[in-house]
From TrEMBL:
Native organism: Desulfobulbus oligotrophicus
Cross-referenced Pfam families: HNH_2
Keyword annotations of the record: Endonuclease, Hydrolase, Nuclease
Domain HNH nuclease: start-end pairs: 198-252
Keyword Hydrolase annotated: yes
Protein name, per record: HNH endonuclease
GO molecular function list: endonuclease activity
């Protein structure tokens, strides 16, 4: 087994749903087979779609997941699906290089230290454990700080690290698979993109300790195999979160708020945004995905 970087665009050319599957041509089958059972990192390139002139991608690593299996695509010849589990987005995207430091050594030319464009052209790249660990450490800085206890040392920046990995770094995979850490990382990411504001009421309450009272809600619950993805999340106040989890309110594909009629008093209805639409993040790529909205309507909503 070995770890790998998988490239996927904001508007994928292939049938990607990174939280669940990665669609790829047979060219990369051998490399992805080596990563089965191990961890992968998703990378967003500069191009946001298959249009050669498209731009706007972050050129950054943005999530990790565990590669479970590969299945042949029976519709498209010589194409395959890689299925993943334990998907978790970084609390902030990690650029492929910071200063002179390249997180993937293969992306830097040895003769002059500049970017290796040929290596960049490969949508699937195998990486050693050390490079994977450093990317994770950089991507979960806020979450690690939020969960660190007084007996641990906060992480240092990757280009300050020596050759030997510390115990703290070696344990990072053990931490990200634990539910408490995943809950923190999910909450940090969701609250940030919604600017600590309830998407259904517009309420933004900061307590005396400077902490936002808004909560990060899963659209498709974790107990029903919902991923810890921003696109499967929404920021809600405590009362609205309770109603959402119990199917008293839901969301249509156009982001209008749906209400289970005759199940809520008028006093609660008056809390909702006057136009009955969500307050959405400015970035379209982190807004609720139709796949998860449909799941909530079909399986949880009581309307």
């Amino acid at each position: 087994m070995t770890k790998a970087v998988l490239t996927t665009k904001v508007n994928p050319t292939y049938d990607d749903l990174p939280e669940e599957r990665y669609h790829f041509p047979g060219t990369y089958l051998g490399q992805i087979e080596k990563a089965i059972g191990d961890w992968i990192i998703y990378y967003e390139p500069r191009r946001i779609s298959g249009d050669l002139s498209s731009r706007g991608g972050r050129q950054s690593y943005f999530a990790t997941a565990r590669l479970l299996s590969i299945e042949r695509d029976h519709i498209h010849k010589n194409h395959y699906y890689a299925f993943v589990a334990d998907y978790l987005e970084f609390d902030h995207a990690v650029p492929f290089k910071e200063g002179h430091h390249y997180y993937e050594s293969s992306l830097q030319r040895k003769n002059d230290g500049k970017t290796n464009r040929g290596a960049f052209g490969r949508a699937v790249r195998l990486i050693p454990d050390k490079e994977y660990d450093l990317i994770l450490q950089a991507g979960f800085t806020k979450s690690l700080e939020a969960t660190v206890d007084e007996n641990q040392t906060l992480p240092v920046t990757p280009y300050e690290l020596g050759e030997e990995m510390t115990h703290y770094e070696r344990s990072i995979i053990e931490r990200i698979v634990a539910r408490p850490f995943r809950d923190v990382a999910f909450a940090v990411s969701v609250k940030e993109v919604y600017q600590d504001t309830c998407a259904m009421t517009g309420l933004k309450i900061i307590n005396g300790g400077g902490r936002a009272e808004v909560q990060a809600a899963h659209i498709q619950p974790v107990s029903q195999n919902g991923p810890d993805s921003i696109r499967n999340g929404i920021a809600l106040s405590g009362t609205v979160h309770w109603m959402f989890d119990r199917g008293l309110v839901s969301i249509d594909d156009d982001y209008s708020i749906l209400v289970a009629m005759d199940r809520l008093p008028d006093t609660v209805m008056r809390l909702l945004n006057e136009n009955r639409r969500l307050i959405l993040p400015p970035r379209t790529d982190v807004r609720p995905h139709r796949h998860y909205l449909n799941y909530h309507r079909e399986n949880i909503f009581k309307g």
